[in-house]
Amino acid sequence: MTLSAGVDEAGRGPLAGPVYAACVVLDPARPIAGLADSKALTALRRERLADEIRARALAWAIAEASVEEIDRLNILHATMLAMQRAVAGLGMNPDEVLIDGNRCPALAVPARAVVRGDATVAAISAASILAKTARDAVMVDLDRLHPEYGFAQHKGYPTAEHVAALKRYGPTVHHRRSFAPVRASLSADAGA
């Protein structure tokens, strides 16, 4: 039996917060109904599935790359780093790793990129769900620290409300300074 791990990320596009990746090896003897791309599920359904994944998977791990790493490396390389950390945190060596998207991080085990894998490969769907729920939870926590930004609602994505808050209050330490809207708010602060 070939043991495949699925890997996906959450949080490449937001202006704030870490980027997360998860790695999941599902148990063929304990299938999980309803797995899908995390973006296609309601928040409540994602939370319920995340609990089920953690309880039924043979192995799983969640990792992140920090805002500082994103700004230093760029978002693509930081995402690859988070994926490497998730695979390393698995505690087992799968026979292969299936990565959502069109690029694979450097890994010690064979890896294959699967475009739209979060919608077509159950293990990648599971990883998508774990990464998204972990990142969303962090953004809700950040909302408690900085309620004026609305992180709990937009999760750091560049919505009109978030960009307006950036212009009004300037960036927090949780904002990605290498992203254009954050850089623009820094320039505005310097010119004021």
Plain-language structure description:
With 192 residues, the chain is of the alpha/beta class. The protein has helices at 43-56, 67-73, 75-88, 117-120, 122-145, 151-154, 160-169, 180-191; strands spanning 4-10, 19-25, 59-65, 96-100, 111-114.
Summed up:
The chain is an alpha/beta fold. It has eight helices and five strands; from the N terminus they run E-E-H-E-H-H-E-E-H-H-H-H-H. The radius of gyration is 17 Å and the shape is globular.
Helices and strands in order:
Elements: E1 4-10, E2 19-25, H1 43-56, E3 59-65, H2 67-73, H3 75-88, E4 96-100, E5 111-114, H4 117-120, H5 122-145, H6 151-154, H7 160-169, H8 180-191
Parallel strand pairs: 1-4, 4-5
Antiparallel strand pairs: 1-2, 2-3
Helix pairs in contact: 1-5, 2-3
Biggest sheet overview: 5 strands, mixed
Strand content: 15-25%
- Taking strands numbered 1, 2, ... along the chain, how are they ordered across the largest sheet? 3-2-1-4-5
Number of helices: 8
| Name of the top-level CATH class of the largest domain | Alpha Beta
Q: State Rg.
A: 17 Å
In CATH, the topology of the largest domain is named: Nucleotidyltransferase, domain 5
- How do the SSEs run, as a string of H and E? EEHEHHEEHHHHH
- End-to-end distance: 63 Å
Shape: globular
Instruction: Work out the helicity level.
Output: 40-55%
Uncertain regions spanning at least 5 consecutive residues: none
SS-based structural class?
A: alpha/beta
**What is the averaged pLDDT score?**
95
Number of strands: 5
What is the name of the CATH architecture of the largest domain?
A: 2-Layer Sandwich
CATH superfamily of the largest domain: Ribonuclease H-like superfamily/Ribonuclease H
The number of distinct structural domains comes to: 2
